[in-house]
Amino acid sequence: MSKSTLTSSKNILEGERIVYSTSPYPNLNMQSGFERGKMVFFDGVRRFEVEDLLRASAEMLGKGGFGTAYKAVLDDGNVVAVKRLKDVSIGGGRREFEHHMAVLGMVRHPNVVSLKAYYFARDEKLLVYDYMSNGNLFWLLHGLMLTLNLISMFKFMV
């Protein structure tokens, strides 16, 4: 999906821009159709390069079916959540991946963390979100139930 296609989409918020940043490191396997790694930002501001993400101090938050999530503290003190996708085959290659990321990048809802940026290269796929410090949805839902169940059991025993 080209930049002009993305910016002409009706679903992009007014005033929102997409900024592209190309990694300075060329891909060694040019025959695969992947030219270079590319960092794409959805909020119109290029805040960091992929090298900044890789250099950041990171704490693993968890693993899932699609990859591993990390809390990364950048050199400037900003904290982001980075999802490092597993090496899965992408049916349509780079264009299919970029299309899916463009759709995710347009999602705006008060209860959903927006995709801020993504990085795509042959060997590395990263999704970047703002870090939310209150934990994950599972613990918000089930952790509360566990606490309530323990309180109920205690009340029953007394």
CATH superfamily: Phosphorylase Kinase, domain 1
CATH architecture: 2-Layer Sandwich
CATH topology category name: Phosphorylase Kinase, domain 1
Order of strands across the main sheet: 1-2-6-7-5-4-3
Task: Determine the mean pLDDT.
Answer: 73
Task: Please give the count of helices.
Answer: 4
What coarse outline follows from CA principal-axis ratios? elongated
Radius of gyration: 19 Å
Order of helices and strands: HEEHEEEHEEH
Distance between the termini: 64 Å
**In this structure, how is the largest beta sheet organized?**
7 strands, antiparallel
Task: Give me the count of strands.
Answer: 7
Helix content: 25-40%
Structure write-up:
This protein is an alpha+beta fold. The chain has a single domain (3-133), classed as Phosphorylase Kinase, domain 1, CATH 3.30.200. It is built from four helices and seven strands; from the N terminus they run αββαβββαββα. The chain has a seven-stranded antiparallel beta sheet. It is elongated and about 65 Å long. The termini are far apart. Residues 1-34 have low confidence and may be disordered.
Question: What is the compact description of this entry?
Answer:
It comes from Ambrosia artemisiifolia. The protein is of the alpha+beta class.
